Amino acid sequence: xxxxxxxxxxxxxxxxxxxxxxxxxxxxxxxxxxxxxxxxxxxxxxxxxxxxxxxxxxxxxxxxxxxxxxxxxxxxxxxxxxxxxxxxxxxxxxxxxxxxxxxxxxxxxxxxxxxxxxxxxxxxxxxxxxxxxxxxxxxxxx
Length: 142
Known about the structure:
Blueprint (H helix, E strand, L loop, with lengths): L22 H4 L1 H16 L8 H25 L4 H19 L5 E2 L10 E2 L8 H7 L9
Antiparallel strand pairs: 1-2
Pfam family, one: DUF1151
Organism: Paramormyrops kingsleyae
Protein name: Family with sequence similarity 107 member B
């Protein structure tokens, strides 16, 4: 392999490039792990030969961290009161839509006509509205 032009010693006024430093190898964490691996190799311990208890404890710790992260995401995703109320109303409207035309009317507690409530959307209506809107009565007994 040919040497580059700037390697000649005859040009002292040129700036010579320096070798770049590898940030991974200079990190303290990497040095500690490398030192530990060398010590384990000298003692004859392979990194895969961990005791069963240590493997189980590490797995539990990982699972707990994942569970905690999921709970934090769920807490951020928690719905406000307005969103909950809007969702209830949407479900109520979907029920009305699925029930078909008109309301299903039933008698309230005690069987009194004045306390009749729409069973589909849980609204209380006046007697006139009930008579006008009644398509399929729930209680046919009089």
